Amino acid sequence: MTTTQRQRLTSLQDTARLSNGSSVSLLNGKTTDIPTVSIGLPVYNGENFIEEAIESILAQTFQDYELVISDNASTDATQIICQRYAKQDPRIRYSRSPINQGPAWNYNRVFELARGTYFKWAAHDDIFEPTFLERVLERLIQNPTAVLGFSQVDVIEQAAGRIRPYNVEMDLDSAHPAQRFKETISLKHRCYEIFGLVRRDVLAKTSLIGAYAGSDRVLLSRLILEGTFEIVPEPLFQAREHGSQSIAMLRKPRHRHFRMHDYAVWFDPKNKGKILLPNWRILYEYFCAIRAVPMPATDKLACWLVLASWLLSYSNLGKLGRDLAIASVQLVGQLAPLFKVRSQEPV
Fold it and tell me: Are 53 and 41 in contact, with CB atoms under 8 Å apart?
């Protein structure tokens, strides 16, 4: 790294702290121990890819960050790998849960442990280019109205051993909240922006990752109402596709009508056996997002109209109706043994 590049990165760090009200230095001339960026890495049995993910973080040109790893009771070599890295670098903090409490809990746990002004989730199987933090943070500083920064994406097809571009364009910097909201609630994208760099104070206003299917899309829809997203035009993020990741159950479910129910159980094992209305839950959360964010009356009305259009679309009406049908069958199944016992009681 050249002297000019070092000076630029130092200036970026100082600007980031000043722009967010953080003190760059104390009276004795020493810098604060609060990092500009916190990276939260939730993991469960990630031995196959986690070393590559950590190495991509350690290779960042912007170095004023902490890496918080939360291990959700892994049974493979994840713990050994993470502890080795934590011993080598004081910026890495490793925490382990004695029992698996589900991905939703784990994603929120790393945020609770984070201290930085900016926060980023990192998946154990994804990687990002060395300039990711530098380029994205720079754009957030330049645009105070933006709440999240990200980049274009390349997709690693693990099985095929190749990388392909993720060509999905969205209008995430529109001046109109309703247009941005419409983009994020659509199913044309894979919610990769959830791994963007977010202003921590804005993210703290939300419910984070909920224990239900689709909560990542809901969180993005809430954030996009708070402000715009800044997207670096180059692909600095690489998302890995492989057979053991959670989204595989959506692509190859045990039954297409139950895929959202199964996904809800993946988010939180406590959902197993419960009567769930996954698509109704998403509708409710979209409603709460619009209601929670202050905005001019005209913008709020436009958001309500977008949600009404979403609700009345043929595909979503079908999903909502299917939820009710599945719940009815489950309810009958749960009540049937009670009626059977009563019928056997002596008169």
Answer: yes
The chain-wide mean pLDDT, for the chain, equals 88
Pairwise CA distance, residues 25 & 14, whole Å: 9
In sequence order, what are the beta bridge partners of 31? 25
Per-residue pLDDT reduced to its tens digit, 89-120: 999 999 999 999 999 999 999 999 999 999 99
φ and ψ at residue 90, rounded to 5 degrees: -65, -15
**312: which 2 tokens?**
């009345």
Residue 250 reports pLDDT greater than 60: no
Query: CA 134, CA 54: separation in Å to the nearest integer?
Result: 17
Which of 242, 280, 289 has the alpha carbon at shortest distance from 261?
A: 280
Complete domains list, the chain, with CATH:
3-241 (3.90.550.10)
Task: Using a cut of 0.70, tell me whether the model's pTM lies above it.
Answer: yes
d(CA 233, CA 149): 11
| Long-range residue pairs from 291-297, CB within 8 A, at least 24 positions apart, any chain | 292/205, 292/222, 293/177, 293/222, 293/225, 293/226, 295/177, 295/225
Q: CA 218 to CA 287: how far, in whole Å?
A: 10
